[in-house]
Every structure is written in structure tokens, then in C-alpha cells.
Amino acid sequence: MSGAPRSSSVAPSAPDWLRDRVVAVVGGDAREQEIARLAAAGGATVRAYGFPWPDGGIDGVGLARSAGEAMDGADYALFPIPGIAVDGRLYAPAVDEVIVPGADLLSRLRRGAAVLLGRADERLRAAALATGHPLLEYEDDTELMLQRGPAVVEGVLAVAVQHTPVTIHGSEVGVVGFGNIGGLLSRSLVALHANVTVFARSPVQRAAADAAGCAPRPLEDLAAVAPSLAMLFSTAPAPVVSRPVLEVMARRSLVVDVAAPPGGIDLAAARALGLEAVWARGMGASAPVTVGRSQWAGIARRIADVERNGGEREG
Q1: What are the CA-CA distances from residue 220 to residues 48, 161, 199 (Å)?
Q2: Which of 2, 34, 153, 283 is the 20 to 30 A CA-CA neighbour of 292?
Q3: Could you give the residue range(s) of every CATH 3.40.50.720 domain in the chain?
């Protein structure tokens, strides 16, 4: 059995094994429309709930009335890549239902069914362990993150343009982190002729930032440099931009948190201090077809691995 194609520019095909599988797509945004469409195009029975439902529906995809109905007897549950909120709910702004993937919800899947998502929290990991459902997380898949990265960066830049009275060109800009998204964002800001300072704990990341034309600084220097910044973007997945940093920034400066929950910036403190504060999560939705295709390619590879390894299939 051949693996799924790795290009995000062409919709990945699916091997024959998908034709007798049931896939639940639960939560998300317009990216999940494309993921559901591609799963159905590969022959799976697809049930969807929790993402925006388009006029005219999606060919081959059934709309469930609840998360539980979507997951009943499914072989695979696909949850959104944006991180689970601090209260344990999935990212599903299109519905009123609070979808918390606990043991009760997971137990509605077929025995041994796999759950695929960006990153699980400890509650979901405990629920999966209790119910015997493997978790397949792809937040750290470098290939997939780089494929979807340009769409994320375009969305973040659009946020910056919308929320600032100054141009990116010529502005003093800070970026926390130089991983997959931080690196792409920093290079794009340099290309727009911003003066970019990258703050990172890792000396390897600082060296990479220097090579990309940024001014590298240790994370500990953030408070010292912050007063000069017109914009500060954080891609760190942990709280690092705290009130003492925000207090020294000029009023109306822009702070943008690009990370999934719990995020990297104290946005409540930023707003209280008169800063323009934006949580730019779900930026991949700015190009949902492109990003949906790349995410499906990564999901399909993981499902193929499960099938090759003889994933448990009991009725």
C-alpha cells in the first residue's frame, strides 16, 4: 500500500482501505470542510459536526445533530488542530454545544478507534487511556506545519495591518520564538523591511534568526527591548510575555498571540494597559482549502500507518 501524497497543492488520494471506514470530523472551522470533503472523496463514510456548514452541504458528508452522533461507531475521530481550551473544550465556534472529549464521548467510538488532532491536553489523554483509544497528535509534525505555515503567516500579517496605524515597513518588531511558524513569520517581516528582533531561549534558534537577517536576543532580554517595539508577536506555546513586559511597552503598541491555548501573552493585562491585543489563533483558516488539503495529507499518513500496523477493528 502506497503512502498518501505529500504535496499540499494536489488533493491527496486515499487507498482502498478508506472505503469501509467511518470518519467523524468534529469541531473546527472552514479547514474541516475541506478535510471532510477529501475523506468522503476517498470513499469513507463521513459524519460531521461542529464546524461551519456550507450552503448546499458537502458531497458525501453527513451532518450530525451532535458530537456524540457524529462519533457513534466511527473508526477515526478527527479533532481540530487549534489547541484544546483551558476548560477542556474543542475549538468549535460554529456551534453552541460545548464539546469536551471526555471518556463518555470517546466511548461512543468503535473499539480501538484512533483520535487525531493537533495536540491533546492531559484530560483528553486520560480519557483516551481509560477508553483504549490511541491518540495521534500532529502539532509537532514539521513537514505539515511548514506546509500550512504560509497561510498562518499571511493571516497574522493581515491582523497586523488591520490593527496598527503604522506600516510594518520600517517598524521595530519583536517575535518570540523561531520555530516553524516563528521562523516563517520573522522572514516575512524581514522581507517587508521591518526591523525584526527575535527572542528565543535556544541558541540554535537565535543563530538561525541571525542568519535570516533578524537581531537575535535571549528571551530574558525581552523586557529591556520591549519599550522600543511597535509590534510584538509571540509564537511560544507557553506564557512568556507577562505583565512586567507589557507594562513597559508604549500605549497602542500591537501584541499578537499566535500560539494555541494557553498562549504566550497575557492578553487581559495587555488590554488593561492600553495595548492593542489580538489572539490570532486559527490563522490557517485564512486559506482553508490550501490548509485543509495539507492537514488531510498529514492525517491520511497517520491513518495509513494505523492500517498498515493492523489497527484493531471490532464491530
Answers
A1: 45, 28, 8
A2: 2
A3: 16-140+287-308, 143-286
Q: What is the pLDDT of residues 164-222, one digit of tens each?
A: 999 999 999 999 999 999 999 999 999 999 999 999 999 999 999 999 999 999 999 99
Read off the C-alpha cell for 91: 475549538
Beta-carbon contacts of residue 282 (< 8 Å; ≥ 6 apart): 29, 82, 91
Residues 6 or more apart whose Cβ sits within 8 Å of residue 211: none
Fold classified for 143-286: Rossmann fold (3.40.50)
Residue 72 has pLDDT above 50, yes or no: yes
Tell me the mean pLDDT in the region 294-313. Answer: 80
Among 84, 157, 93, smallest CA distance to 123 is for 84
Residue 145 has pLDDT above 90, yes or no: no
Residues 6+ apart with CB under 8 A from 91: 27, 28, 29, 80, 82, 83, 84, 85, 281, 282
166 C-beta neighbours (distance < 10 Å), count: 14
Contact residues for 214 (Cβ-Cβ < 8 A; gap 6+): 175, 178, 186, 190, 196, 197, 198
d(CA 285, CA 81): 11
DSSP-assigned letters across all residues of 212-240: TT-EEE-GGGHHHHGGG-SEEEE--SS--
Give the span between the Cα atoms of 65 and 49, in whole angstroms: 7
Please count the other Cβ atoms lying within 10 Å of the Cβ belonging to residue 118: 20
Distance between terminal CA atoms of the chain? Answer: 24
Q: What is 16-140+287-308's CATH topology? A: Rossmann fold (3.40.50)
CB 240 within 8 A of CB 254: no
Tell me the C-alpha distance between 254 and 277, whole Å.
6
